[in-house]
Every structure is written in C-alpha cells, then in structure tokens.
Amino acid sequence: MHSINCAADDDPLPIPHEFYQPGDLLIGGIVSQVFNFHNTPDFTLQPAQMLFNEHISVPKNYQHNLALAFAIKEINDNPSLLPNFTLGFHILNSYYVPRMTYKATLSLLSTQWKFIPNFKCDTQNKLVTIIGGHTADISVNAATIISIYKIPQLTYGIFSHEYGEEMLFPYLYQMVPNEASQFMGVVRLLQHFRWTWIGLAATNDDEGDRFLETIAPLLTENGPFVSLPPVHKVWILTCQWDFASFSFEKNWDVESFHGAISFTVHSNQPPGFPKFLQDISPTWATGDGFMKNFWEQAFSCSLKNSDVLGDSNKTCTGDEKLESIPMILFEMSMMGHSYNVYNAVHAVAHALHGIYISRSKHRRLAGGGNVQLWQIHHFLKNMMFNNSAGDTLSFHENGEMKTGFDVTNWVTFTNGSFARVKVGRLDPWAPAGEELTLREDRIVWHKSFTQGQPVSVCSGNCYPGSSRKKREGEKFCCYDCDPCPQGMISEQMDMDSCMKCPQDQYSNKHQNQCLHKDISFLSFKESLGIILTLLAISFSLITAMVFRIFQKHQDTPIVKANNQNLTYILLISLLLCFLCSLLFIGQPVKITCLLRQTTFGIVFSVALSSVLAKTITVVVAFIATKPGSRMRKWVGKRLAHSIILSCSFIQAGLCSLWLSTSPPFQDTDMHSLPGKIILECNEGSTAMFYSVLGYMGFLAIVSFMVAFLSRKLPDSFNEAKFITFSMLVFCSVWVSFVPTYLSTKGKSMVAVEIFSILASSAGLLGCIFSPKCYIIMLRPELNNREHMIRMKRILQ
Known about the structure:
alpha/beta, rod-shaped, Rhopdopsin 7-helix transmembrane proteins, 5-stranded mixed beta sheet, single chain, 6-stranded mixed beta sheet
C-alpha cells in the first residue's frame, strides 16, 4: 500500500454507519448491524437516492461495536500493555450484502473520508488488522481483498468449513472453531439423550444448504436418526442462531423456545463491562455513526432533527437506560460474538506488544510506524495469554482459536425476557466421544414435557434382555423388542442383537446377564449320594451276613442242596454288584469311567450265570434220575462251572473289545441342563454299552425261561420257583431302566443306573436267599434230612 499526499475530494458516497476513533495503530472492524431497505428501482432517481432509502437495524448487534470500543479503552488505559502508543479503531457496516462489504473493506484500506483504495494519504492511523465479519459470507468477501495486503483478519463469527483451508486464506484467524465441530456436538447431544426422531430446519440460502449437506452424513454415520418432526419440540440450535430481532419486533413471542438447547459461542464477562454499558448515551462518544440509529430504534423514539421508523411523536430524552430494553433487542451481559470481538482486539494488542518487547532491547518502537504485518502474523500464531475474564487464549496451527462452545439452555418468561443458563461445554479438541459434557440437573425442559426429560423416538427403548427387530415397511429406527432366546443375553438398552453366553456360562431368567454354570455330578456329600451310598453299603453288609450264615450252616441239608459252590459264587457276585455301584458316585475321573460299566457288566454276568447254572442243574438232575438217561454224566460240579465260565467269558470279551476300541472317558456336558456343567463319563461307544447291557438281559431271560419251565419239578428243595420270581424282578427293573435312563441327564441319569443295580441285585438276594435264611434262622426243625425226604415224596 502506497502513501501519497492526497488532495482529492472526500468520498462522494461514504458509508453512513461507521464508528471512528483515531490512534497510532488502527484496528478495522466490519460489523453487521443495519440493513438497507429501498423501494422498487426507479430509473428517474439516482442510484444513491435509492440505496439509502430506509435503514432497519438489529439493535443487539450494536454490542459488537461496544465490545471493540471497550477492549480498546482497556488496552489504552493499561500502562503495561503497549505503553508507547495508542490503539484506534474504524468500524464500518456491511449491510449484509457483498457489494457493501467490499466497499467497507476498501474504505478501511483508504485514508479516512477519502475513498482511494491502495493509497494512504498520510502515515498516521496505520491499519494493522481487521476484525470481521459476523457471518462466513461476509468474512470471505472481506478476505478476498484483505489477503492481498497480508493484513491479519480475525473473524468473530462462525466460519464455514468450505473456506477453512489455510492455503486459501492464510492470513485469516477464526475466533470460533470451525462450524463442523458444533455439528458433531449436535450429534453427541442426540446420542446422549437417545433422541432418534428428529427434524432439521435450515435457512433457504447457501449457509442453510451447507448445514444440511454437512450434518446429514454425520447423522447417517452416527445414527440411527430419522428427520421427522415430533409433536412437541425441543429446539437444538447452532451458534449462528440467536434471540435477536429487528427493532420493529419488540414483542416477538419467544415462549415457544422455552427449554431450547443451543451451542453458543463461548463467552465470559470481563470486569468493568456492565459499568461501561451503563455509561452509554447518545453523546457518549464522538464519531459513533451507529448510535443514532441504535438509540432511536431500540427505544422507539426520535432524537432531534431525525426521522425514525416507529413512533415519531416520541422524543428521546437521552437518559434512557439500556437495561430497560427488551432482551430480544439488547442484552447487558457480553454475548458470545461480542466476547470474540473483545478477545480479537486483545489478541492483536498482545501480538503488537510482543513485537514491542522483541525490539525494545535495541530501539524504541515510537508511534508504531515500524510495525510490519508479517511480524503480527508471527506473534499471533505463537502467542498465549490470559484475558481479564480468566480465559486462556491461543490459536491452533490452522488459525482457529483453541476454544469451544457453551451448551446453553434457554429459559423464557411470560414478559418476553429470557435467561441463558450454561448447562455444558463442547470441546472440539477433546478425544472422540468425549467432546460433550452436560449438567442435566440444570436443564429446564419445555412445560409440555410433563414427564421430565423428553423422549424423541419412533419406538420405545428395548431394555436389557431384549433386542431390536425392525418393523417391516417403516423407518429404520422403528422397531419391536424381541426377548432374547435361551442362552443369549443383551446387557444394554437398544441392542440390535442378543449375544450368546460363553459355554461355561448361562443366561439368567431376565436374559440380561451371563452367570457362571455350577459344576454338577452325583457327590458323596449331597443327600441323594448319601442315600444311595448307605443303601449300597447296607445291602453289601446284608449279603455278607447271608454268606456268613450259609458258611456257618454249610453242613445242613438246605445249604448243601442245589450246589453249595454255586450259592457261594452267587453271594460273592451279588456282594460285588452292590459295591460296584459306589463307582458311579463321586466326581468322574479316568479310572472310574473305565471301570464302572465294565465291572458292573462282568460281575452281574457272573451272578446271572450262577442263577442260570442253578436252574440248568435242577433240570439235568431231574432228567438224570430217569432210567437209561444219558444225562447222568453231566450231573455234578463240572456242568455248573462250565456254564459260569463260558457265560462270563463272553461278557468279559465284550468288555475287552469295548475298552480296546472306544473306551469310556471323562467328559463335560455344557448344554443338557441350563445353568449346569455336567461332569460325566462318556460311554464312548453307545453300541458296546447296550451290547453289554443286552447280553445281561439275554442271560436273565434264559434263566427266567428255564426256571419257569422247571418250577414244578420234584426236588427236596426246588429253587426254580424262587429264581423265577427273582428273574421277573430283574427283568422288570432293567426294562424300566432303559427309557428312564435315556430321558434323564446329569446326576439323575447316574442315580437311575445306581438304583437299577441295587434294585435288581436286591431282588436276586431277596427272592433266592430270604426263604432259605428263614428256614435256617427261624425254622431249624425243617432243616433236616427226614423233612426234605418227606417233602420230596409229597412232590412226587
């Protein structure tokens, strides 16, 4: 920019709304307070006459001017900050149109009151920075000119991400984080309250289009959300929106926004600013071209020699108080954008002070004439300071101020006033997912939400224990809640699917938690195990006692009858049968799994073989008594022993084949019983198990048939009838065992087999030996040779 001694006339078409205060260094400002309204173009009039036909203001934006003026006053009154020169300012209105923004920008680059762009008619009032504008479009329009001169530009309004590239505007600094960060804040807020039934409203312009284009993908990525308006509304507002109206809308009803939540530019209250506002009057400062318009339209009165929109019969006294203005028009506390203007001025001042300090060692920076713009950039990018409100300020490397947004709850009142209540904070620099912090207890909701916190969903929550199932033909956030299947859970609300519990765990009855399964096996310590153990031991003792009785009376006729050795073999095998049932009780281990079924099968086969040998011996002995019978050579111990050995050998062979091919092994069953891990012995080969069991059944059936056919044969003491009953009991027990065994699981299945072993063994013991013990112990007179001969004659 060149400096010349200009003699040109003043600007023929100056911007009427400006605020100027001289200083050694000048800070420019582009604000948006006044709108231009003009009639339909009339080509009989000069364009200038049409342009400034009528002015309508947004009184609340006047605070931006006051914040800049207050900051300049603070700095100039501070002897420790820029002590050798003063700051001045020149604020111009943009009128919200590009051509006037360009005009204002070029005016700042010209000499005061002379519109000669690119030339300065003197060396005073050197422009060091420009603060503005209020919207992204105004900021960009100004930046296209300012960037040519490399003048730092600090934009105090929200800035679109489209223009956020550092290479496009390298000299632009943003006092507010990029607008995309607050859009993510909106998403986090929706997620926090689990609101999925939402509506989007945007202005019908480029900025509204950018809003929809940006937030729609964020909602899709972080959804599910539907863009449909609910019956009762909770307004979620971005910082571009504010409770600000034109001067003629003093009675605007804001009650419908009661309970709204907005992301507002972070603000704090610098000390002295409320007192500064109280001193404002129409004559508070010379050079304030905004004051007249603001005062008249804010108070609906006319200053002297003025035409004003509104009640022209009322004359302003000048003593009106700003605190009496409705809050929709003006606020006494510093707003977010005003706070950005205030901080922007202080940021520039601290950058200039840094230049002053760096040069003070060599020479004085008198009058500020030696300040180079590139130096301001250097110090702006690297500075950090605390302002008078207590906030720490610095710029990120991309030119964004390291600050965030306030989450504000708007509380409105019937008289049209409202209160801003800070209920949280949005920090764009926080880790993902932790950007938003809220104080829910401070939020006031709209009175239409009588239940408290609003619920905005198409479907109610699916609580733990259920999952969401989409409704056919409806929006993707409309769903029904399906209970989780058995063995599956959902621990959180609104889960899309239930998850399966690990194998060693099971779902509780509410299907919302996995519990560790209990270990289950038939233990010696539990009631059922104790009862079965006592039964097995008791029957074993009874069998041993019977054996002792028979030994003691081995010389009596009733013991000698029907082969004494077979009787002993049968008693010993029954004793082992009772004892082998103990192998089924207790935690299954490798050795017990290998032994219990095979031991039971072999021992029981010996017992059944002994019974079969007894019956066959009776039949052979009867046949041998007939004259000329060839069966006499089979009468004796050799036949009985041959039957026992051959029948038992076959069972032993089956068991050996079983153990060598697919032996039983220790196993766990995770699924048969809910909440249980069954420790069991897997039988290995089911076919071999039922082969062993089937062979015992075969022996029992053969014994039953032989005993039944020989039950009426004459003998001194015919056991056939008792064997018939014992085999009938045996077969009944094991026929009942098979379906019961197959229909039970875990310890119940083991208990069924133990009971079958004890019941069938007790049946053999009782049916065969109880009659003999009765005679031996209670009727010894019957246990003699004469009685048995007499009985034999009776039978013949």
